């Protein structure tokens, strides 16, 4: 064999070896790729489960919030009886609180000291003030109460001239940007303005409600939006959301933020803000074809009626109209204040309320959610508004010659979602809404005749650079923690339900029995079977030790002798009780009298059918009054009712990579 043949043979062998190596490498790459896809899919599934938990608990809380309206209705319906027994309490709940004071009554005694180094606004405002405010807030400066009140008074004056629905037009050269919920997340607003430009006559915006609550910078967002609105009233449109509501703010944080940042003038700010909310338009119509509202529609949505409603009569979702006879309606309390059916704490006539039909129309557009199922049915998750199907969307849009509905109100993993054959778009602009890494934010740009364009983003903190599995573990851990807190607040009811199923008194239930009991008691429609490994221990036969769900958490008890049912009840209803307390505590001192506290509890207990002996609560109240001055610091008291996690199971075994 000559040298050429040898070389030919060598080359052939080398080629075959290379082919085999390439084939192995390709197979290995495919195995790794398939493994990674499966791994990523499992992480995404866990993330979806966590988001489902967050959303279910959020909606359950909102449902509890709306149920408070029944309590206030109960107060008004039983006004005569309650007034006889507890005159002081009723006066505090429904007495005159807000009067129509002018600007000088609020601003006359407020000085801006020379030492104040925050932004100083010049009225009438210009685009320079928008820049000034944004730069100050980036430096975490606080706008002085004097300027906050000036902005609120000026905003109210301009809003009073606006219709219920603002109309605006676009062109191919003038797009409009629609932003969804911001919920006090200032960094998201900064990022939107950085990417999309500041509002101006050539860069119009619609902010579709829920500017406040939950996040820590609701005041800053409100001031930027209101100042921008005052500079560009025809090009920046502000729709009311379900959180532009003074009662919602008491539960979800904005009231607390204001009183913390403005200790001296917080009460004045809250009073004027309550008025401003009522004058916010309820929707925007773009090019006579796109309806932008915060929540959604129902089969009975009547845009003609909604255009005519006196929207400023809608004080709060928690103050529904109550049918009353004329004599009852005009009955006066000792202060000469009319007890109006909507619970508005102002002097005036019974006509100051909306009709039931008008009130329901506004509730529907602020609270409703789209679903794939046809028809219109009660929104059982939130407790207010409705679920509306694609047929309802088509019916309402066709009736009013509209092409599309843009709404917000729901957190979406990608920041937006399209449904109902492209006729409904949800946009949500608060990224990391539930937990860092939980969701992206988005905004929409659209103009006449053009397809809407979506822009997504996510505020990135240092922790966002962690590997995906670590971020998912953190989100999942937080979600499970919230579930455990929900379970501990219903511990007595859960144990009773478990024991009804456990006929053999073995302390164990099948997976199906446990899941049925938990869903029945908590009222959360969740994949309990999948979640069980995070919440309880299971034996080798697949049976669940149902008491294990309470082993690593408990409610901190301020008084050991008080029965656990009372502790759980106070924890479960702590937000509702705090809202009622805050209304009674009209001067926001954080204190109410022992008698008011007892009266509040008795009324609450009566309406919510809580079966707890009054002596138990009296004992708790006595022990709460540590300095025996006859007053109770309820805010401090509630801090004693928090859930203690002895250890976090997710940090041990459940967070292992799957």
UniProtKB/TrEMBL annotation:
Keywords: Calcium, Hydrolase, Magnesium, Manganese, Metal-binding, Protein phosphatase, Repeat
EC numbers for this chain: 3.1.3.16
Signal peptide extent: none
A GO molecular-function annotation: iron ion binding
Catalytic activity, reaction form: O-phospho-L-seryl-[protein] + H2O = L-seryl-[protein] + phosphate; O-phospho-L-threonyl-[protein] + H2O = L-threonyl-[protein] + phosphate
Gene Ontology terms describing biological process: detection of stimulus involved in sensory perception
Protein name: Serine/threonine-protein phosphatase with EF-hands
């Amino acid at each position: 064999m000559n040298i050429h043949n040898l070389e030919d043979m060598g080359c052939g062998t080398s080629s075959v070896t290379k082919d085999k190596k390439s084939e192995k490498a390709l197979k290995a790459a495919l195995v790794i790729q398939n493994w990674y896809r499966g791994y990523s899919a499992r992480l995404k599934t866990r993330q979806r489960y966590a988001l489902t938990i967050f959303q279910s608990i959020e909606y359950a809380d909102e449902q509890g919030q709306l149920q408070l309206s029944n309590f206030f209705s109960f107060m008004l319906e039983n006004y005569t009886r309650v007034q006889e027994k507890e005159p002081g309490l009723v006066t505090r709940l429904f007495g005159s609180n807000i009067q129509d004071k002018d600007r000088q009554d609020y601003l006359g005694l407020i000085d801006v000291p020379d030492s104040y180094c925050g932004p100083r606004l010049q009225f009438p405002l210009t685009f320079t003030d928008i820049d000034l405010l944004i730069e100050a807030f980036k430096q975490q400066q606080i706008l002085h109460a004097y300027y906050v009140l000036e902005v609120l008074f000026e905003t109210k004056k301009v809003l009073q001239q606006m219709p219920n629905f603002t109309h605006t037009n676009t062109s191919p050269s003038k797009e409009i940007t629609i932003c969804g919920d911001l919920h006090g997340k200032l960094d998201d607003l900064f990022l939107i303005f950085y990417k999309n430009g500041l509002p101006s006559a050539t860069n119009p915006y619609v902010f579709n409600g829920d500017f406040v609550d939950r996040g820590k910078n609701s005041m800053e967002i409100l001031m930027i939006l209101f100042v921008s609105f005052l500079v560009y009233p025809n090009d920046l449109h502000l729709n009311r959301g379900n959180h532009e509501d003074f009662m919602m703010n008491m539960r979800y944080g904005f009231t607390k933020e204001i009183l913390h940042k403005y200790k001296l003038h917080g009460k004045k700010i809250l009073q004027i803000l309550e008025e401003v909310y009522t004058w916010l338009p309820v929707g925007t119509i773009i090019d006579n074809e796109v309806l932008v509202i915060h929540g959604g529609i129902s089969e009975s949505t009547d845009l003609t009626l909604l255009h005519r409603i006196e929207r400023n009569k809608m004080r709060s979702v928690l103050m529904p109209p109550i049918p009353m006879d004329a004599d009852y309606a005009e009955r006066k309390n000792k202060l000469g204040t009319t007890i109006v059916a909507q619970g508005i704490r102002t002097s005036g006539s019974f006509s100051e309320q909306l009709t039931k039909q008008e009130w329901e129309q506004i509730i529907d557009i602020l609270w409703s959610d789209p679903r794939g199922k046809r028809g219109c049915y009660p929104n059982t998750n939130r407790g207010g508004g409705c679920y509306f199907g694609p047929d309802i969307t088509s019916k309402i849009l066709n009736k009013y010659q509209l092409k599309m509905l843009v709404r917000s109100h729901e957190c979406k993993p990608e920041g937006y979602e399209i449904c109902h054959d492209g006729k409904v778009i949800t946009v949500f602009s608060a990224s990391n809404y539930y937990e860092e890494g939980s969701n992206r934010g988005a905004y929409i740009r659209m103009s006449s005749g053009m397809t809407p364009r979506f822009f997504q983003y996510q505020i990135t903190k240092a922790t966002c650079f962690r590997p995906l599995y670590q971020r998912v573990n953190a989100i999942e851990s937080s979600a499970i923690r919230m579930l455990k807190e929900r379970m501990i607040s219903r511990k007595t009811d859960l144990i009773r339900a478990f024991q009804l199923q456990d006929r053999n008194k073995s302390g164990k239930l099948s997976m199906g029995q446990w899941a049925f009991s938990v869903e029945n008691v908590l009222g959360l429609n969740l994949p309990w079977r999948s979640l069980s490994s995070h919440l309880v221990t299971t034996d080798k036969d697949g049976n669940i030790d149902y008491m294990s769900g309470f082993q690593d958490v408990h409610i901190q008890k301020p008084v050991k002798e008080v029965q656990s049912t009372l502790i759980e009840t106070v924890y479960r209803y702590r937000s509702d009780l705090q809202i009622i307390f805050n209304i009674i505590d009209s001067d926001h001192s954080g204190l109410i009298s022992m008698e008011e506290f007892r009266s509040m509890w008795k009324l609450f207990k009566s309406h919510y059918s809580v079966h707890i002996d009054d002596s138990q609560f009296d004992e708790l109240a006595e022990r709460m009054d540590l300095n025996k001055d006859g007053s109770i610091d309820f805010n401090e008291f509630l801090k004693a009712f928090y859930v203690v996690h002895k250890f976090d199971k997710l940090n041990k075994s459940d967070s292992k990579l799957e």
